[in-house]
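Lab manual, section 2.4: Encoding a predicted structure.

Procedure: take the sequence of the chain (119 residues), apply the prediction step described in section 2.3, and record the output as structure tokens. A sample record is shown.
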Amino acid sequence: MHPVEAFIWNLDDKNEQKEIMYYLHELILSHPGTTAKIRYRIPFYYRKTWVCYLNPLKDGRVDFAFIHGNEMGDPFNLFFVGDRKQIRSVRIGTLGEIEEEKLLYFLQEAFLIDDLKKK
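Recorded output:
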């Protein structure tokens, strides 16, 4: 089993976090050339550079974070910024909150930004 999949399947079953993480993991990896690795004890996703990561939060939600989020648009007003300068994220608490079309929009923009980065 891949280390990221093992990480996801070892999450607590008290809420939908495991299912959300797996759903997002599969969504991200459905894009060609994307790889996943455990970094800083959470799943990170790469192409040329770090593109995004999934962080299971203590409150049961999942933080779907984009490394270069400050360079991305947010036409759906979904991004959580907090006190972060660069990273932007969408926080998801239930499977029903997943809006795949909007998340795909963000992923495509993140991959485009990554394509323009120097390795």
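Check your result against the sample. The chain has a mean pLDDT of 95.
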